[in-house]
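Now for a chain:

_____
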Amino acid sequence: MEYVKFGNSGMQVSRLCLGFMDLPNRVEEDEAIGVVHEAIEHGINFIDCADAYGHGHAEEVLGQALQGRRDEVVIATKFWVQMGKGPNTGGCSRLHIMQAVEDSLRRLQTDHIDLYMLHHPDPKTPVEETLSTLDALVRQGKVRYVGVSNHYAWQMAHMLGVSALHNWEPIVSIQCRYNILDRVIENETVPFCQRFNIATMTYGPLCGGLLTGLYRRDQPLPEGARYQRAEGAWQQEFDENLFDVLEQLQQIADGYGIELTDLAYAWLLAKPYVTSVIMGGSRAAHYQALWDVAEVEIDAADIQRIDKLSEVRRYRPFVNQDIVQGAPLALNWW
């Protein structure tokens, strides 16, 4: 397993990050815990979670899995999602963050979180309030580094500027959706992260299952597949261009004697601006098929070929981010 420096921090993380969203909420706890242990044995030292995953259940299972092995991994988790019925049980206010971090620490059975992230922007809370609170958590030792997820480049730029102005702990990372079929972050997010050395964690490597090789032209959608259950914008994925791209990708994968899923991961790992690729799955077998995917090598010419045939996929709306406005003005901050 290759380890890389995590943006502007001195922390080293594995190129593959174990995504702990679906698995602990879809299988028995023992099976999910087994996957965590297997990941560690295969050199993965980076695990991504969130309080929202299973409404805290994923963090609880991860906490159980890491008993006696806490120091072997970097734990990343997130806050923002509404976790209770009251008006202050979500968002990025100081009131919610201070409660959310204590809840996550308890569920994870640890005294610190290595990377604590805003799951989404909060258009109701001044960014000064959010950043000053996160800075305090770092100073208290409850959090090591702070980052964001599902933010636009300009939102991150605002946060870096405010942090610098007040000498607060700056964000060190962004977690965002990126794959061969969804390349919108290349337009602004990637150049921004390269310029300011922001670590880039990418999720959705298989584009919700489209890059598994199970979707074929003029054939019914796979039974139980995510896109079979989806409506609206998700269904718009299915056009002739999509299947043109999928068929050519399958040809490239066949040429290497690998699965389409392996090609999708190899393409991401070949991008120097991708710090770590978050592995997803709802069954243990989904992860077990990928333990050695970091060793798959694709010729530079084929990487460029994939870039060219999927170029149109750069120009599309952001997925999973409807919050386009910024934080409100903090009129009491100078």
Observations:
- The chain is about 35% helix and 15% strand.
